[in-house]
Amino acid sequence: MIIEEIMNKDVYSLLPSNTVKDAIQLMKEKQIRHLPIVDNRNFLVGIITQHDLKNILPSSLHDHEQITYNTTLDKIMIKDPLIGHPLDSIEDIALTLYESKISCLPIVTGGKLVGIVTTTDLLYTYIELTGANKPSSKIDIKVTDKPGILSNIAEVFKKHKANVLSVLVYPDADDANSKILSIRVQIINPLLIIEDLRKEGFHVLWPNLPGIEL
């Protein structure tokens, strides 16, 4: 999935000549925490965040000049911010946000602002992709890391006509030769599936249901 599919395209922005007061008012009115700063041609020139504003107000001194509500944004904005492109993958954008410890990324094409994505957007997308927002159950299975194992597990779900919403694969912290498959299935009571998985010799870690041996 590319970032263009989830980015917010209706981006609120301000000019460098706008003031701190303008930024505070717009953030409050639109209930947003990030404001890209653009020039008259919509080219991105900076960004200001709610966190930035809290750090400079009500009184910070820079070169003996007090930052006030009438200070223009060009004096306090983050210039040359990190940016993304609409065709960037969600994974790449998430990695950029994580490694840079930032909470948003303006999305730019040809220097012009076309969207913005935040950590909240990525979190919601993750929830949707895994199916956690739908009535479902999660089954964690410890498996040997070898070809064909997922196909064997899928046969059990197929037998129960259970719709698999997502499959995530994690390394096993205790065994380098094993993986943890976290499977979300669109069924509320997975008891019969779990019983059949264990009959087939699979090690179900979760759910640990009362009365059933691990």
Automatic annotation (TrEMBL):
Keywords on record: CBS domain, Repeat
Ranges annotated as spanning the membrane: none
Pfam families: ACT (PF01842), CBS (PF00571)
Ranges in coiled-coil conformation: none
InterPro entries for the chain: ACT-like_dom_sf (IPR045865), ACT_dom (IPR002912), CBS_dom (IPR000644), CBS_dom_sf (IPR046342), CBS_domain-containing (IPR051462)
SUPFAM superfamilies the UniProt entry points to: ACT-like, CBS-domain pair
Name of the protein this chain belongs to: CBS domain-containing protein
Species per Swiss-Prot/TrEMBL record: Ureibacillus galli
